[in-house]
């Protein structure tokens, strides 16, 4: 990211990060603040709208919005071990503009603190005594995996409480898959790093917390070929896959300047922050405004095992962990194929210094098969174009799981958001004989249960369809009656579309049986050909809502899992559908509560022909299969956004036809391949 | 396709086609039979099962099933112009084994006959008189597009009746997009090529058949940039898309011998016929049987405009046209990228000679992003593998529309079936002023309406999950109650899966709100780790059912659009969910009727732990958008099949990790790209 001059949407530069913490530090007297967050406070939309318009028209920009940093600091407190403060720093004046004590709120997971929890846990005498009863094999190592405590009402959440799950590493390698050997020991650690509870986990179908202290069952030890994923610990891989390379002899079609990206009539700005990871801003096609901001708002992974203490497993991977902080360094991995542009990002160290996150976003093109084709059957002349897409991808690792998030841009002005779940299933110990079954999960190895869980994502879509006054239209396709004398449909084949415009904030469900389609339109701009408002439609991903009971903490804390499509009035910084602080939250901070509060207090505004925001909840009810073990082949979830009567025709009509001269495909020759030489005859 | 020796699943060779028609010809005395079909009659499953087993075990094959051809012949008849006969020819003995007069049935569309219809129509005096009233521009040309008559109960369907839709070609080029200028003249042509009716089409919202004879409105003539798709008729294309090539320096990973394909533990046989196009047989992974046969069973495209005569627009593109016959020659088009294997096929001429259909299937690999990844956060060591998929693709052109059908095979033993709709919307003339709206379509140009319609596909899945005795399981994910004293779920987070096994043939609907999952399992084979029956699950495509009224001919003729998932007992040659003869059908031949008949006559058999077949109906309610005009950017529909507790772990665990050495990605350098030279620094 360029040092300066920067765009108002650009993340803070390393220098700004240092300056912000320097400005903040004196506000904490003698204390040594733990800088949890030093990030850009995005400028108010009211200021950005005129700015972006001038920018688009290449006019003088005039007043540049004040540059602000948002800083979160944790300091030891009088009453609790960890007090959280939020400050806003004016970086133009190097001054604190606002300081607030976030009483009762917790910062996201502190990795250093979690390391200390692990150590405290393992060093604890009661824990060690418990481990001894396991009679573990020599040369094995106990691994403690600390997790945020998902509120269950059983504990005071004022201070941090950490759940410690125990695993066993049988092999010497640090990359051995310890999730293959979950132990039935569990511990809880307090804010002050005291181990407050040690107990045995339930391992039978209907068992409450278990007090039996059985030793580790050696019969559970299975072959490394079955339980390891690291190539050094496994048999040799298959050797049948021949190399596949992508070559762009004239380079890629994108142009990137700093965080500004232009590609095939698309332009937008790439943002990044510790929590949301990749964000996209001012997304336009052919200069026309489409989306002000696109981001993943939150994701929630609640487990469906009702046996205590498993209800404490429910992760807000953005709010608790941070999709930016946990983004993989893509350079090392060979995660992207072709001609790759990498974006770095910056987070901060606990002392407020810039911390580089290299290669957290990769950007590249990809061929996506045929874009459009027609052959006039009378002439037999085919015309075919291939679909080139632009991919922006990040990958996060959150303990055992990985999630790959990719934005795909099409030449036809369509956008896709693809989530892939991979990584390792969370496992718990089980002790059942052949005839028993634990109904809350799948046995993936002897003594190992992979519990049922859900993945729920909230995609935040801030449309700006040809401007900021948009409306949400819900359209359905309905058959005409066959026997109604007032309706001419004697053959019973007719159907029409019925639309209604949403007036108020709220949540909606999907219904494919009615072809229910959600469109964001600009009622002030009519398409000159179709005579209908210009718009974009959502291509949702159909998935089950949150299964947890509405009165459960899972439901109360997440909220967004209650409906598939939410619409709210735009508010600056309102980016988080489960609330700003999810760690040990008790609920009441999410979309549904905000909407309800506005209704009750009479502050709700119409969302018709206004600045609105859409939140699409989608995900998967993940009942593990053995094929997901020991590491899961990707499960794909895709959401799309497509123009509907926005343009005056196919926006990709001007894509050049596909030719062999450009594509240089190679004809496979059976005879040649039998002789083991490559197929070299080009078409 | 190899001449000989052939596999029982191999399509007929050119020689066999000649021989079959030679054997048949004498059976029609002095008449000159029009050979409509000369195709393989696939051997009975009862015979193939032991054959395939021996083949798989590399044992002597013993008895090879008799080689049969199925021949359909049309001859002029006494009562009607066109009598259809079906014969079965024993190719081992060169004898007719069976001959049947298919009374009242019509063969699929005869392209030569349709050409004759066009000519008869244009030559007809009444038609010419009607055209004159249009006062068409000089140098324009009327184009007649004949369509099969979709039964509407208004005509005797004993003989062929053809609907003629009229369009205007304004430009001289034969590739001009005449769909841009639909005319309101319509004609019907009889079996004997007589024009029986000429009239004007409805062009107003509530108009019945129109008798006003308005001239062609010159104001409708729009720019070629808006209405043409052929590059020779349009402005220069965008020049921003840089080349993207796929290189496989060691060739592809597949091995092909004749029609047998092996790739990354997959093996299967490629079949092809005039009607279904591409069929896949004996699909196995790592030698284990998965699917006996995979194919597209039918597709139905009914239009939703109730104004007569538009209810006659409803195309069975397989049964009426033939996905094999209309498959594109892929070599010419640059339809496939990379190292490509093409398969040819053979149809027959009207005189029964072999007719080569070159390059109707292309086969190649594709990179599909990351397959699986995990980074141990403690060591920061990432392990990532990329997903290589195998693609088998065909494309059909059916008048204005194109459909791209692609099978994708994954290294994780998953299969996807992807349909892309592209080509040109069907158009009808409209004559509305700015304030009027025709509620049955979208205006895509002045005077041009693209009517609402549906695309409904039926994917026929013949599972053979570790053998032929399979069951259909319907599983749902259900929350446990929070307040039931008998159920331990105090935190309200628990959920379980509930399954029931289907005993009888029938149709089922999708329900994502319950995470309803359809699995094909083998109850006789228990997974040694999970303790559950081995199986595969369907990843359906959620779409609206057929909108036409159940009493409409559209519904009665298609039947399969009534439910999303059908299950029937396997019967040889039972491949067509809307019946074997769809041309001018009246209904009663589809899945629902067959199931009902078996129930009523007491011949229904259990489908539990039996040889069953699944039919997945999916599609799209297509309410055109202007972006679909003049040629549609692809609309994708994807269905998946994935193993569920079939293997003992991730079947792609042994895929080699992704490395830069193999992948040779290129780092994009902003500075270099500014200097317009390619990015050459490799990672």
From TrEMBL, chains A, B:
SUPFAM superfamilies attached to this UniProt entry: Amine oxidase catalytic domain (SSF49998), Amine oxidase N-terminal region (SSF54416)
Cofactor note: Contains 1 topaquinone per subunit.
Keyword Secreted tagged: no
PTM sites of type 2',4',5'-topaquinone: 401
PTM per Swiss-Prot/TrEMBL: Topaquinone (TPQ) is generated by copper-dependent autoxidation of a specific tyrosyl residue.
Catalytic site: 317 (proton acceptor), 401 (schiff-base intermediate with substrate)
Any one Gene Ontology molecular-function term assigned to this protein's record: primary methylamine oxidase activity
Protein keywords: Copper, Disulfide bond, Metal-binding, Oxidoreductase, TPQ
Stretches assigned to the Copper amine oxidase N2-terminal domain: 7-101
Quaternary assembly: Homodimer.
Protein name as it appears in the record: Amine oxidase
Species: Emericellopsis atlantica
């Amino acid at each position: 990211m360029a040092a300066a001059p920067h765009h108002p949407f650009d993340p803070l530069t390393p220098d700004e990060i240092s300056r912000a913490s320097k400005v903040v530090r004196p506000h904490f007297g003698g204390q040594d603040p733990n800088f949890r967050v030093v990030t850009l406070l995005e400028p108010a939309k009211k200021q950005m709208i005129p700015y972006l318009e001038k920018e688009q028209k290449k006019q003088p920009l005039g007043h540049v919005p004040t540059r602000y940093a948002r800083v979160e600091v944790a300091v030891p407190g009088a009453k609790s071990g960890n007090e959280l403060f939020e400050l806003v720093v004016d970086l133009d004046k190097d001054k604190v503009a606002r300081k607030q004590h976030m009483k009762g709120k917790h910062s996201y997971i502190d990795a250093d603190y979690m390391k200390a929890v692990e150590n405290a846990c393992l060093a604890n005498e009661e824990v060690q005594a418990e481990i001894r009863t396991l009679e573990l094999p020599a040369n094995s190592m106990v691994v403690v995996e600390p997790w945020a405590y998902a509120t269950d009402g059983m504990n005071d959440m004022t201070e941090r409480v950490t759940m410690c799950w125990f695993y066993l590493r049988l092999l010497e390698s640090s990359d051995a898959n310890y999730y293959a050997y979950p132990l039935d020991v569990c511990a809880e650690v307090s804010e002050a790093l005291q181990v407050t509870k040690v107990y045995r986990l339930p391992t039978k179908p209907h068992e409450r917390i278990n007090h039996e202290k059985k030793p580790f069952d050696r019969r559970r030890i299975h072959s490394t070929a079955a339980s390891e994923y690291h190539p050094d610990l496994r048999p040799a891989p298959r050797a049948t896959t021949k190399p596949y390379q992508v070559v762009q002899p004239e380079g890629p079609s994108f142009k990137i300047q700093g965080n500004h990206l232009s590609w095939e009539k698309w332009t937008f700005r790439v943002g990044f922050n510790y929590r949301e990871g990749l964000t996209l801003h001012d997304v336009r096609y052919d200069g026309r405004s489409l989306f002000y901001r696109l981001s993943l708002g939150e994701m929630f992974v609640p487990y469906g095992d009702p046996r205590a203490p498993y209800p404490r497993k429910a992760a807000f991977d953005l709010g608790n962990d941070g999709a930016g902080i946990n983004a993989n360094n893509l350079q090392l991995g060979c995660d992207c194929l072709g001609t790759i542009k990498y974006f770095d990002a910056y987070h901060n160290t606990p002392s407020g210094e810039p911390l580089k996150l290299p290669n957290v976003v990769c950007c590249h093109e990809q061929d996506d098969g045929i874009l459009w084709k027609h052959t006039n059957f009378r002439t037999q002349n085919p015309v075919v174009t291939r679909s080139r897409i632009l991919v922006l991808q990040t990958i996060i690792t959150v303990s055992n799981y990985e999630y790959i998030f990719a934005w795909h841009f099409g030449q036809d002005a369509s956008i896709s958001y693809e989530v892939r779940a991979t990584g390792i299933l969370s496992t718990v110990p089980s002790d059942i004989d052949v005839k028993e079954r634990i109904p809350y999960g799948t046995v993936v190895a002897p003594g190992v249960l992979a519990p049922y869980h859900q993945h729920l994502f909230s995609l935040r879509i801030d449309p700006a369809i040809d401007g900021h006054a948009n409306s949400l239209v819900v359209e359905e396709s309905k058959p005409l009656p066959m026997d109604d004398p007032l309706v001419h449909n004697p053959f019973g084949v007719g159907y029409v579309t019925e639309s209604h415009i949403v007036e108020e904030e709220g949540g909606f469900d999907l219904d494919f049986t009615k072809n229910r389609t959600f469109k964001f339109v600009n009622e002030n701009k009519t398409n000159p050909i179709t005579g209908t408002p210009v718009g974009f439609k959502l291509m949702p991903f159909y998935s089950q809502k949150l299964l947890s009971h509405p009165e459960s903490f899972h439901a109360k804390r997440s909220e967004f899992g209650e409906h598939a499509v939410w619409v709210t009035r735009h508010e600056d910084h309102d980016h988080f559908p489960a609330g700003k602080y999810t760690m040990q939250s008790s609920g009441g901070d999410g979309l549904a509560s905000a909407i309800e509060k506005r209704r009750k207090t009479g502050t709700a505004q119409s969302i018709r022909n206004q600045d609105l925001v859409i939140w699409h909840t989608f995900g998967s009810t993940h009942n593990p299969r053995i094929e997901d073990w020991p590491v899961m082949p990707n499960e794909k979830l895709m959401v799309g956004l497509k123009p509907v009567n926005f343009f005056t025709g196919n926006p990709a009509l001007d894509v050049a036809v596909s030719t062999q001269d450009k594509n240089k495909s190679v004809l496979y020759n059976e005879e040649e391949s039998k002789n083991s030489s490559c197929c070299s005859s080009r078409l």
